[in-house]
Write a structure and sequence with these properties.
Its EC number is 1.2.1.70. With 438 residues, the chain is of the alpha/beta class. It is built from 15 helices and ten strands.
Amino acid sequence: MVLFCLVASHRSVDLNTVARLSTGALGVAEEAVSQGALSGAITLSTCNRLELYGELLEDGTRDVALAQQQLAERVAERAGLDERFVLETMDTYHGTEVPQHLFTVVSGLESAVVGEREITGQVRRALNQARQSGTASGHLVQLFEAAARTAREVGARTGLGERGRSIVSVALDLADDITRGSWPDRHALIFGTGAYAGATMAALRDRGCADIEVYSGSGRAQQFTDQRGGSPVTEVELPAALRRADVVIGCSGGSAPMPASAFPSGPRTVIDLALARDFDPAVADLPDVELITLESVRVAAPEETRESVSAAREIVDEAAQGFAAAQNARTMDQAIVALRKHTMAVLDAELEKVRAHHGCTGAEEQIEMAMRRMVRSLLHIPTVRARQLAAEGRADEYISGLEALFGLEVAPPQTLPADQDPLAERSPSDTPRPRAAG
């Protein structure tokens, strides 16, 4: 078993490219698992990043490199991008690099707004979506469970993100500086009804904005406002809602951006936070209109304190090392079980031969006890050595030796049942969306 991931993020490419890659990645993980190319896969797609996590049963760098290349080529094909460009654009991780990377991401250390909290929920929703589609393998579930625990520990032990900074909050801070009036007097119009739109609704209410309308091209605005408040807007009512709005916020990532010509005249602030743009960039050229984009948010995002970031990175490092050690220990436990079963099976077969040949005698019980003590003694050193190699991260060497010497097949470690899984809890807001923001 080996884990790997492919990553395209705001740190290496522009957000338009991230959006195109995310569109191209839709269904790729499920396809790879169904065709047997991967034993498991999870896709994490946000407004700032696309991450494809995969599991291969066969170890070896060549196998991993080939799987990564095939996934990247498939994404490139569906996104209509040059394959070489995508291969050069996406960062690759495998083995122990994978938990280190995911734990860093889920803690908010890789976000455009360092320490933002939205990414934790997005990672949880990515796992939930993979479970629903049947692509979440046991080891990937364990990886994402450990990521959730790491994020909680970072939140509990450091000041990272304690001010509740997020892409939404930074965007609204920018809007506050350039929009007339105060939030209680402003009229807001939200495009979208997903989890990100819900976060926007909550942030607006926290600032005192009560006049909020919601539009959705999918027709789910009524359901959304029934649950979260605000007023639904239909297609027919949209032009009038745009005229009323002081602040227009895009969170949907619709199939085609709204053209600048659809906006009525008058001063307003337009915030486009969708993975795929909700509004044509030409909106910025309209008189008295200010456009705030994800790029604007990234530039304006305040830096967290050096102490908080340093403490968070130490927690991430410890968690990644602990995850690797735990995986080695679980794998080694299975190897020890396999060795003991094999040895005891040989012993039982030989004892059965003795019984068949000599029958039941007074000495037979003593012979059996002596042979079992001898086998336990023989297994002591291999068991101790197994623990030592697991602690050193060399479990694969031990397992390869068992396979070579005895022809044993070591079963993969078992995962937690769903009712003990901290990430298995679901709520309506956790419904996976192909293009979550964050």
